[in-house]
Amino acid sequence: MAARKKTVSKKNTAKPARSRWLKPLLKLGFYSSLLFGLALVGYLIYVDRTITKTFEGRRWSVPAQVFAQPLELYAGARLSRAELTIELERLGYKRHANLPHPGTFKSPGNELQIYLRSFAFMERHRDAQRISVAFAGKRITQISGENGAIPLLRLDPATIGSFFPSHGEDRIILSPEQVPPLLSEGLKAVEDRNFDQHAGFSIRGIIRALMVNLRAGERQQGGSTLTQQLVKSYFLDNRRTIERKLKEVAMAIILDARFSKEDLLTAYINEIFLGQNGSRAVHGFGLGAQFYFNKPLAELESDEIATMIAIIRGPSFYNPFRHPERALERRNRILATFENDGLIDTEQLTVALGQPLGVVASPTSGGAYYPAFMDQVRTELKDHYDPEALSSAGLRIFTTIKPRQQEAVQRTVSHTLNQIESDRNVEAGTLQAAAVVADSQTGEIHALVGGRKGRVDGFNRALNAERSVGSLIKPVIYLTAIESGMHLGTLIKDEPITIQPEFGDVWEPKNFNGEYTGELPMIRALAESSNLATVHLGMQVGLPLIAQRFKHLIGHEPKNKYPSFLLGAEALSPLAMLELYGNFASGGFRTPPKAVIAVLDERGQALTHHPFELEQTIESRHAATINRALEIAMAKGTGRTSPFARRGVAGKTGTSNDNRDSWFAGFDNSHVSVVWVGRDDNAVTGLTGSSGALRVWNGIARQDGIDPLTHAPSAELVDIEFSSGLRANADCADVVNVPIPDFENLQTKPGCRVNSGSGLRRWFGSQ
Known about the structure:
Blueprint: H1 2-58, E1 64-67, E2 72-73, H2 81-90, E3 94-95, E4 104-106, E5 111-116, E6 119-120, E7 125-126, E8 129-136, E9 139-145, E10 148-149, E11 153-154, E12 159-163, E13 169-170, H3 181-191, H4 203-216, H5 226-235, H6 242-258, H7 261-271, E14 273-277, E15 280-283, H8 284-293, H9 302-312, H10 324-340, H11 346-353, H12 371-381, H13 387-392, E16 396-399, H14 403-424, E17 432-439, E18 445-449, H15 461-464, E19 467-468, H16 474-483, E20 491-494, E21 518-521, H17 522-527, H18 531-541, H19 543-554, E22 571-572, H20 574-585, E23 589-590, E24 596-600, E25 606-609, E26 615-616, H21 620-636, E27 650-655, E28 662-667, E29 671-678, H22 693-704, E30 717-721, E31 735-739
Parallel strand pairs: 1-16, 3-4, 13-15
Antiparallel strand pairs: 1-12, 2-11, 4-5, 5-8, 6-7, 8-9, 9-10, 14-15, 16-24, 17-18, 17-29, 19-22, 20-21, 23-26, 24-25, 27-28, 28-29, 30-31
Helix pairs in contact: 1-6, 3-9, 5-6, 5-7, 9-10, 10-11, 14-22, 16-18, 16-21
């Protein structure tokens, strides 16, 4: 009994010792768990608020879209069936015998039948409709629709760019109603079969993807849900760590709890990364359809939708431009999945598998992308809209560019530079050029080329290359002289001159050919671009008055205050020269070049209109006189080598010192154009205005055609001898018909008989 009692006594004394340790441990565990739980809840609340706010704000961020001028069709328009076909294909229209949906056309006989897309123009919305365009040769003869003849029709304009944020993401936002059902169901079939059932992540999906990949011996499926992929695109980087994966799952669960499945799927369709185009990241299926197929998402066929889904898995690995075989193989596997899931039938599968990959020829050939012109659009908008509004407010910007003309000018620039380099046996690729073409009356820019490679972002020579303009400045001197009371028959000195400025070196200008005639009329001096005669005239009129006139025509004072300004020692951009010559082309009005017509908000309401500015800068009679002189400069002067010299075109060539810069500025009744050719390193090219820039302009004129200048008759027109300025007639002299006030007081060339009515035949007299 004693032993048993001792044993019990030992057990009783041990219990209190354990209790002393157990209670503090339990307390510590409880409070630690409580703190951890509170921290976890706090973190989840923070994550919930953060990602919900970000998701709500970002999923509807819409970059501004920029549209070109639509091509206008009307009976009598100079446009062949082949040319209109090219325009339709540029817009992504596809040939189809049955015209099953908008964006298709066919060409039976001598006409085109087109199923036009709907489009919200600035003035009104146009519904999708079927139309027919009939042709005779290279002209449209009739346009008809379901309700009869259509006098004027506009194609939907090309999208030429967008203002995506500084981090480079560009997208076209789609609403759920704009998403084709095959895309929605196809994404779930290929990427996330349990999307409609799971809570943001799927254990079953992970296991299924693992088994598929093991059987295939490669990674064919991923275990992430569409929601997880959306989270990764929105919030996380691509590091493959357990911490990142846990965050991804937690965020996916929160998003799934907060938003509907339709919201999440639409956000995914608008967000997913699908490729890279230089600094521009292509996000979402809306933009992806334009980028890869040059047409809206709604017009994609089943094989094209399968290609887009194929790219998701690896936009670089399955890039259809670089790896078409890989993309085609994966596309076909996805088409098989479509058929297995009942999304398409066996016949549709057979047809789809027989289609080529069908993407555009290159990343830059889908749609239209004109970075040089977009630079001008940005310049015009920067004072009205901040970058955030342009990149997120869904604005629609309508511009003046005409893609058909833009691409013709770009081709001409590139081709002519190649020809010049070949003809002169100089290193290929050393010459550069810029060209701007605008409406002669409104200043609306129809084409703007910043270099020989048009669809490459880089230095924009049309806007930013300020180079000495040479003889392009001379019409300003002659205009000022005419406004001072002189006329085109006035004789001016053509002899050596020495000018000693108050500061600087003595200046002794020379003629291009080193010769001089002693005296010649103003019309000949301008046409033949005599340096000495121009300097004598400028010094006679006065440099301050000429500088003031220049400022009135272009909006700013010349930087060069010295007499060398008279020969074009003034650095200006091609766009600035376009503004200067626009004063002449418009008949005496300053119409600054413009690229933006209007800006609409996401509801289609006009925020700003950009009407053309109009200020009279030259009296009409003086404008008519200088324009006639520039016509003669083309016909008998430095522009005479052009095949269009005598077709109603006015223009002036320009060459800077040492033949570094070659210029031409000219205009007809419709367009004013400026071309510059030179080298980026400012090295000597050996080109004059005639042998360089004029050749480029000749190519542009061949593409666009000439709309000859027209003038109202004037009682002041008279025939004078080109070489002497004396009154004469075509039977006894080489005459030009020019406007001269009080022509009765002009001397007559000896041996020529003229009367008061002689030489007053018409504006376009003998040249």
